[in-house]
Amino acid sequence: MVEEPVAAADCLQVTRRLGFDNLLTAERPDTTTCPLPPQADSVKTARDVTRSTLDQWGLSELGDDAVLVVSELVTNAVRYALYPSVFSNGHRRDDHPITLMLLRYAPHVLLAVSDPSDEAPTPKEPDFISENGRGLYIVETYSQCWGWDHLDRGGKAVWALFRTGS
């Protein structure tokens, strides 16, 4: 069975000090953010942004693993953003778009994807025959650790942490 994610505070203190709400809107040289519409081609856009950002930071060795993880996170975010159109928190999906964020915090890179749903990501036992349900298993396998945080504005950010060679 896939284990519960490590708490954000245990894995990377910067997320607690700055908060994802601030990180997702900050304009910092060590951060890239990209708003994404809730549609299937956003997954390709997220992969392209992730790869190009890591290349610019001189961290292309993380590219394959990070692109795989971001594909899973954005796929889940698109799914959550599309259904239903009004969430339990009373917000419409248009109130909080999907946002991809990459944060370089040496010796780590944090990938986070926010979506308007308050529903917690739930790890499942991977079923390698089924065509879905393996996303969080993949995220856990290819990242150092992962987790999620509620956003003050509503919705959540699901994140994965990678350790760089430098």
How do the strands and helices of this protein lay out in sequence?
Elements: H1 8-11, H2 14-18, H3 20-25, E1 31-36, H4 42-56, H5 63-82, E2 98-105, E3 108-115, H6 135-142, E4 145-150, E5 156-163
Antiparallel strand pairs: 1-2, 2-3, 3-5, 4-5
Helix pairs in contact: 4-5, 5-6
Organism: Sinosporangium album
Protein name: Anti-sigma regulatory factor (Ser/Thr protein kinase)
Pfam families: HATPase_c_2
Write structural notes for this entry.
Strands 1-2-3-5-4 form a five-stranded antiparallel β-sheet. The relative contact order is 0.23. By secondary structure, the protein is of the alpha+beta class. The protein has helices at 8-11, 14-18, 20-25, 42-56, 63-82, 135-142, and strands at 31-36, 98-105, 108-115, 145-150, 156-163. The chain is 35% helix and 22% strand. It contains six helices and five strands. The chain has a single domain (8-163), classed as Heat Shock Protein 90, CATH 3.30.565.10. Helix 4 (42-56) packs antiparallel against helix 5 (63-82) and helix 5 packs antiparallel against helix 6. Keywords: Kinase, Serine/threonine-protein kinase, Transferase. This is Anti-sigma regulatory factor (Ser/Thr protein kinase). InterPro entries: Anti-sigma-factor_SerPK (IPR050267), HATPase_C_sf (IPR036890), HATPase_dom (IPR003594). GO terms for molecular function: protein serine/threonine kinase activity.
